Amino acid sequence: MPHAVLRSLPVALATALAAAVLAGCSDEAPRSQTAPPGTSPVAQQAAVPFNDADLTFARQALAHHQQGVDLASLAETRAGNDRLKALAKRIIDTHEPEIARLSGLIESWAQPAPDDPNMEHVQRDGYIGPEDMADLAGLSGKDFDRQFVTRLLRQREAGVRIADAETQHGRNPDARDLAATTSRSQQQEISDLRGLQNG
């Protein structure tokens, strides 16, 4: 074997060992993902380091927001209180673009979207199960308003906790920015719901 090749072996071995050590880093370490060609501008902008807290937030918030839209859609047709209908419309108008942003983040990190977004909520506080949703769908007027406000209030409070966990532990700036926006809007909705409850 030529001397030049022999001299290069220690360098190659050191490089290989360093790569193996880096590959074995914990899942808790920040991950960086380049958005694949042809992805949306939102996905390309979000292709920066993220951690497990960011991914947990994006998946849970996606499920939470989708359920918020489903609930608000019920209120649009079944609520008796005009203020409640206006709040429901505001929730839909706020959540739909945020759902798109959350989906874009998950896509940009090359992570799979949940097969069933509602499953992300199972055994979490604030989750409204299928039976409760069916019960709400069978109500209208004041009966609907009373049950809807109680359930939506718990759901909004859970949403604030999901968002606040991201601002405390997340790394991705887009996810953290969305979490801060979500927390503020849902705290305002909680205030509005309590006003309806007491009024």
Describe the overall structure.
The protein is an all-alpha fold and 199 residues long. 72% of the residues lie in helices and 0% in strands. Helix 3 runs antiparallel to helix 4, helix 4 runs antiparallel to helix 7 and helix 6 packs antiparallel against helix 7. The termini are far apart.
Quick structural gist:
With 199 residues, the chain is an all-alpha fold. Helices cover 72% and strands 0% of the residues.
Question: Helix and strand layout, with pairings?
Answer:
Blueprint lengths: L2 H21 L17 H5 L6 H27 L3 H27 L21 H8 L3 H29 L3 H26 L1
Helix pairs in contact: 3-4, 3-6, 4-7, 6-7
Roughly what fraction of the amino acids lie in strands? under 5%
What does the average pLDDT come to?
80
Total count of strands? 0
Distance between the termini: 89 Å
- Uncertain runs are 2-29, 33-37
> SSE string, helix = H, strand = E?
HHHHHHH
Q: What structural class results from the helix and strand content?
A: mainly alpha
Q: Helix tally?
A: 7
Radius of gyration: 23 Å
Helix content: over 70%
Described by strand count, sense and barrel closure, the largest sheet is:
none
Shape summary: elongated
